Amino acid sequence: PEGTVPRRRSPRSDMGRGLTLLLLPLALLAAPAQAEGGTAAAEEVKIEVLHLPEVCSPRSKKGDLLNAHYDGFLASDGSKFYCSRTQNEGHPKWFVLGVGQVIKGLDIAMMNMCPGEKRKVIIPPSLAYGQQGYAQGKIPPNATLIFEIELYAVNKGPRSVEAFHQIDRDSDKKLSELEISQYLKEEFARDGKKRHPSVHDEILADIFKKNDHDGDGFISAKEYNVYQHDEL
To answer: What is the pTM of this model?
Structure first.
């Protein structure tokens, strides 16, 4: 059915936007495999601006947290293979720009875009699903894709300097279990959803499992800042 496509959701995607995107990034429309090499350099994303607000600020950059709706079509016959408005009760999608949470063509297409802007973009196969295609999403091999995008918000990304300093209360440039635990509690309180107490412990454990690479019980600035779009 329409909208049931190219994305692999985090199992905790319903546990709060700010929390989930802090350290457990989502993958929306992420390509399951890189396109075969050689053609990407010769092809590019074609961008048509359909609407540009009078006040166009801030403009999106790598690492920003974006909120957008988008529809995806096959260029070959115009058929729609994806519609964000039919998913998650019609809420716009949140994702971090430029870090591979969406196909490369969308990461490129949504750079330097401002809230309220609408774009129509054409993405070649090499920047989408390549020669392999994506059968689960009804995208054939070598498919050129068209997306109509409406951007609603551009926010500081979850791995920004500001976010790190907010969690790092003692300013020692590393995040302790206590600091992240407190942050999770605040995020839970902010979104107002009821959760079993075990959820907090499970997410905290998962955060350290995925980010404490040297196993010292802390998440350093280097371990935290995997997107490398800011200097700490």
So the answer is: 0.62
